């Protein structure tokens, strides 16, 4: 409906339903792969599906088979990791149909910055790894999901030098990924790969080589001491960081001065380089050199406060990620 009218479409409060329930996920694997119904997965059975970790890492008692408790423990471990291969519940009001709608060409973006960050970014990463040019946008969804205030999750779109903001041009910039998302306390004022900024084209390499990344970043000199900003670790673990919908720690109006923030260069969802910068309200220029062996997307992030849209680096005869393709298939199934 939105696309038929010439609009841009995406999902709100994306991670509502993308959380991992370790017991349910373990039982789904057993139901799908346990061909002899003995409540165990041997290597031959496990090879038919997508495990959250390598078989040997899950098999904690080293008996050559995976039971429900081991599968539960594995899903619980990877729920705090980004990216991960745990299949979420897909039972909420967030980006439930995104694997299908993106492939059908009717979804332009996934929203982030208001629900748990790992679940938001993990789904986005896997779709990018399948070769789809899905962009990320920022949202708060006040007062429906978050009852605090507007502006907890934001998107900053690069419009260039303009005399007035044109909403149509802003929407087009969002859909093309000329932007970054943040909580308002973290900023990527510039970000390029081999001189190309997100949404302004791809980088093409004839053969594997080095990509040069340059950025200008800034972090507020004072930051709220909250789970949403990643300065408190909730009892449930890192998987809940960034969430503005549910209260995972006692409410606080306290702010934290200074400190450092870890900037990571992410290649196909995994950190490839990093540097720490001070949170001092100043602009810091950064440069990285990253080796690229196959077609990749490259973005800049600070978990859980900041993420740029990616720049694609394209090499000939290089395709999508098989684990991410399998993950998407399992999400749909």
Q: How would you describe the overall organization of this protein?
A:
Helix 1 packs across helix 4 and helix 6 crosses helix 8. The chain is built from eight helices and 16 strands. The protein is 21% helix and 26% strand. The mean pLDDT is 93. Strands 4, 5, 7, 11, 12, 14, 15 and 16 form an eight-stranded mixed β-sheet that branches. Strands 1-2-3 form a three-stranded parallel β-sheet, with helices on both faces. It has a three-stranded antiparallel β-sheet with strand order 6-8-13, with no helix packed on it.
Short description:
The chain has 333 residues and is α+β, with helices and mostly antiparallel strands.
């Amino acid at each position: 409906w939105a696309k038929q009218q010439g609009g841009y479409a995406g999902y709100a409060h994306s991670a509502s339903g993308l959380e991992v329930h370790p017991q349910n996920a373990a039982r789904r694997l057993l139901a799908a792969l346990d061909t002899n119904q003995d409540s165990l997965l041997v290597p031959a059975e496990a090879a038919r599906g997508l495990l959250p970790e390598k078989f040997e890492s899950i098999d904690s008692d080293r008996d050559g088979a995976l039971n429900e408790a081991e599968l539960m423990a594995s899903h619980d471990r990877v729920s705090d990791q980004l990216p991960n291969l745990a299949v979420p519940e897909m039972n909420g009001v967030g980006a439930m149909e995104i694997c299908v709608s993106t492939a059908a060409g009717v979804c332009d973006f996934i929203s982030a910055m208001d629900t748990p960050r790992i679940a938001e970014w993990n789904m986005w990463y896997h779709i990018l790894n399948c070769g789809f040019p899905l962009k990320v946008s920022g949202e708060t969804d006040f007062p429906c999901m978050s009852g605090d205030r507007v502006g907890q999750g934001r998107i900053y779109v690069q419009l260039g030098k303009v005399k007035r903001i044109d909403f149509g041009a802003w929407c087009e910039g969002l859909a093309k990924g000329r932007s970054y998302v943040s909580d308002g306390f973290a900023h990527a004022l510039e970000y390029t790969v081999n001189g190309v900024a997100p949404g302004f084209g791809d980088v093409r390499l004839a053969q594997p080589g080095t990509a040069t990344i340059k950025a200008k970043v800034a972090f507020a000199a004072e930051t709220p001491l909250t789970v949403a900003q990643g300065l408190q670790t909730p009892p449930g673990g890192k998987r809940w960081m960034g969430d503005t919908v549910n209260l995972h720690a006692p409410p606080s109006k306290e702010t934290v001065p200074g400190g450092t923030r870890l900037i990571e260069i992410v290649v196909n969802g995994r950190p490839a380089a990093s540097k720490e910068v001070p949170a001092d309200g100043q602009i810091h220029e950064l440069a990285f050199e990253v080796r690229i062996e196959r077609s990749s997307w490259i973005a800049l992030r600070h978990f859980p406060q900041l993420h740029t849209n990616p720049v694609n680096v394209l090499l000939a005869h290089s395709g999508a990620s098989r684990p991410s393709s399998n993950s998407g298939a399992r999400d749909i199934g």
